[in-house]
Amino acid sequence: MSRRISFTVRKFLLLILLLNMFSGQASAEGDILILQSLPIKPYTEALKGFRSVCSFYSRMVISSGFNEEGIAEKLWKYRPQLILAIGEDAFAKVRKIRDVPIVYVMVLNPQLVVRTGNNITGVSMMIAPEMQLNQLRRILPRFRKIGLLFDPAKSGAFVDRARHYALQEGIALLTQEVHSSREAVAADDKLKGKIDALWLIPDTTVVNSETIDLLFLSAIDNRIPLLTFSGKYVEKGALLAIEVDAEEAGRQAGEMANKILSGTNVKDIERQDAHDGIVTVNLAVAKKLDITIDDSLVKRARLIK
């Protein structure tokens, strides 16, 4: 037992040592260490966007193949001047580092993972609410009463911004706070007859395996179109989705990295939501709900017929 504890302590001390030994040293191998969670299309597109604007030398590691200690060893070996973390797994494994600037991208709610850290900035997977509401207003101009369910602990800041913009644009945003999956379904019932559409954002208290089918059934029964954040839900029967443009988010992260490696302090670069989104429309659902969508807008969207 004592040997096991001793080994664990030595392992922990080694991790701390590796995380701090390269502080302040010049880059020996390259300027950027890119940690990509998995070799999947959205992360690869984000990397493509990043490299299209940031030409500093970089090395790439798939983080899912390493634990935190293994990542620390890579950091000691390459001694980067900046870390780019693509995806949740990569970010989770470097978020405790304080001696190297970190830029994250394709992370859903980074504020829940790390609330402090003057060496951390990046681009979340949440698309700016102003951009989403502007798109919805253009595509569906008659929709003026939009329902929104949210957990304030996860999406409070996002919803505050959405409320502010909606008020300016004459959109009635009817929000319901929820704190559990059971509350989400009950809150959805309270909005019946009061809204033109239900806007689902990537809030895991609201949208998860326990609630999604019930939310869809409710929408079908009440002929309420669903506005969502993923094309897979449009294929399932939602009217429309605005999902993050991974390549564009990568470009945002690349611009941040350029500033940091050119001398700007990380704490002076604000964390951002994704600026742009890809629109997907289900034309069959629109027809079923007697919703007309302008042809000029449809041409710029992904269509499901």
Walk me through what this model shows:
The protein folds into two domains: 2-125 and 247-273, Rossmann fold; 129-244 and 278-304, Response regulator (Rossmann fold, 3-Layer(aba) Sandwich). The protein is of the alpha/beta class and 305 residues long. The longest helix is centred in the first third of the chain and has 20 residues, at 2-21. It is built from 13 helices and 13 strands. The strands form two sheets. It has a seven-stranded mixed beta sheet with strand order 7-6-8-9-10-12-13, with helices on both faces. The chain has a six-stranded parallel beta sheet with strand order 2-1-3-4-5-11, with helices on both faces. The model is unreliable at 1-7 and 16-29 (pLDDT under 50). α1 (2-21) runs parallel beside α3. The protein has helices spanning 2-21, 41-53, 68-78, 88-94, 110-113, 129-139, 152-169, 181-190, 212-221, 231-236, 246-261, 283-288, 295-298, and strands at residues 32-36, 58-62, 82-86, 102-107, 120-127, 145-150, 172-177, 197-199, 226-228, 240-244, 272-274, 277-282, 302-304. It is elongated and about 60 Å long. β8, α9 (212-221) and β9 (226-228) form a beta-alpha-beta unit.
